[in-house]
Design brief:
Layout (H helix, E strand, L loop, with lengths): L1 E3 L5 E2 L5 E5 L1 H4 L3 E5 L8 E6 L6 E3 L7 E2 L2 E2 H7 L2 H8 L10 H6 L2 H13 L3 H13 L2 H20 L1
Antiparallel strand pairs: 1-2, 1-5, 3-4, 5-6, 7-8
């Protein structure tokens, strides 16, 4: 997909207007592609977000969109609660003080840590959430798509 830098129209490459340039002016036969709406020849490359349907730029590589999901939707879909749920799939071993480990079970430690996490100031908690998402946006987007697809299949039945 392309978005015209002048008028903002989102178009497919097949919709571009092909225009031959005057060989006397440019020193040889050249062709350019123009926006069918305004005639401009400058475009941003990108795609339409599968969640919100808006165009997002992929001009800077894959940093802007993950698995067809724009960063805005990825951020909006990954609440702290969702990240805690998805974190179950990425459980990690940690080292902890032996006395604390003997005094508390793993589930009690998780409960204490979750309570403390949720009691953080909203701005700090949001920063932690965003930093966690940034560690592997591709994985989060792929996982969200799989969950959405699975939910869609179960609703069809």
């Amino acid at each position: 997909m392309l978005r015209c830098k002048y008028c903002g129209e989102v178009i497919g490459e097949e919709e571009l207007v092909k225009r031959a340039e005057n060989p006397m002016i440019y020193g040889g036969h050249t062709e350019s592609y123009r926006c069918p709406c305004c005639g401009n020849d400058e475009f941003d490359e990108g795609e339409l977000c599968e969640v919100c349907g808006k165009f997002f730029s992929s001009e800077f590589g894959d940093d802007e969109g993950r698995e067809g999901i724009c960063d805005g939707c990825l951020d909006g879909l990954l609440s702290v609660e969702t990240l805690l749920e998805l974190g179950e799939e990425g459980r990690a071993e940690i080292e902890i003080n032996g006395f604390l480990r003997s005094a508390f079970s793993v589930s009690e430690i998780e409960e204490i840590l979750t309570r403390e996490l949720l009691s953080l100031p909203p701005s700090y908690l949001d920063r932690e959430r965003r930093e966690y998402i940034d560690t592997d946006k591709d994985w989060f987007a792929e996982t969200l798509k799989m969950k959405r697809n699975a939910a869609g299949r179960s609703q069809e039945r």
